[in-house]
Amino acid sequence: MIDDENGNEITMDGIIKALKLKKVRKTAGYDRVPSEMLRDGGGVVASLPYQLFNKCWKSHRVPIDWCKAFIVPLYKGKGSRQFCTYYRPISLLNVVDKLYVKIIIERIVNDIENKI
């Protein structure tokens, strides 16, 4: 995923690879972007995160919205629905941010494997 000719630029191939590994049929997060839209959009859709991810990578900053989440109570499946002790919280995160994180993790893993 690291393009050595252009420094540490995130490549389109890296984004498309991460999109193919994206789980679908998951609830959209804070951004309300469904995973299917990113995964099935192909190169046309991948060009938008390509520009954004490289800007984030070079500036060492991410959009503030990537730090937000919807926290939703999820019923555990047993006990009374009237008591909060029978619920657990789940955080619905930004789908675009999760894609960026997946790419960064892949870079870190590759870097570590190359050094071992």
* Computed CA radius of gyration, to the nearest angstrom: 17 Å
Indicate how many domains the architecture comprises: 1
Please state how the strands of the largest beta sheet are arranged side by side: 1-2
| SSE sequence, one letter per element | EEHHHEEH
Strand content: 15-25%
The total of beta strands comes to: 4
Low-pLDDT residue intervals, each spanning 5 or more residues = 1-6
Structural class: alpha+beta
Written overview of the protein:
By secondary structure, this protein is α+β, with helices and mostly antiparallel strands. The protein has one domain. It contains four helices and four strands; from the N terminus they run E-E-H-H-H-E-E-H. It has a two-stranded antiparallel ribbon. A two-stranded antiparallel sheet has the order 3-4. Mean pLDDT is 85; it is low at 1-6.
Topology:
Elements lengths: L1 E2 L5 E2 L1 H9 L14 H6 L1 H18 L9 E7 L11 E7 L1 H21 L1
Q: Would you kindly provide a brief summary of this structure?
A:
By secondary structure, the chain is an alpha+beta fold. Helices cover 47% and strands 16% of the residues.
Output the keywords:
116 residues, alpha+beta, two-stranded antiparallel ribbon, 4 strands, 47% helix, 16% strand
